[in-house]
Amino acid sequence: MSNSHRQKYLIRLLAGLGIVSGGILVIIYTSFIKSREQEWYIWGAAAIALINSGLFILGSAFVHKVKSDLIRKQKQKETHKRYEFE
Q1: How many angstroms separate the Cα of 28 from the Cα of each of 34, 44, 85?
Q2: What is the spatial distance between Cα 7 and Cα 68, in angstroms, rounded to a whole number?
Q3: What is the pLDDT of residue 27?
Q4: Are 31 and 43 in contact (CB under 8 A)?
Q5: Are 53 and 33 in contact (CB under 8 A)?
Q6: Cβ pair 64, 14 in contact under 8 A
Q7: What is the distance between the alpha carbons of residues 60 and 15, in angstroms, rounded to a whole number?
Q8: pLDDT in tens, the chain (86 residues)
Q9: Environment class of residue 65 by beta-carbon count within 10 Å: exposed (0-12), middle (13-18) or buried (19+)?
Q10: What is the reported pLDDT for 1?
Q11: How far is Cα 83 from Cα 55, in angstroms, rounded to an integer?
Q12: d(CA 11, CA 16)
């Protein structure tokens, strides 16, 4: 039986890192390429949205990593108890 939390961890970790990187690239793009005074509000809002959603997904990945580790430890404990009593 596969551990779905481990799969969710890997997917969300990569997605979160990609989204945070995208937010940082938006900031770099805005600061070097776009210099109009009125457009930076839109680009700033996009960067904030990207970085915050990326951090949220990274937090979710961390929770799934903890759940995966707890499930693995519980299985090891059950296996050890089973062999101990036989």
Answers
A1: 10, 11, 61
A2: 9
A3: 87
A4: no
A5: no
A6: no
A7: 11
A8: 357 777 888 888 899 999 999 999 988 888 877 666 677 788 888 889 999 999 999 999 898 888 888 888 888 887 777 776 65
A9: middle
A10: 37
A11: 42
A12: 9
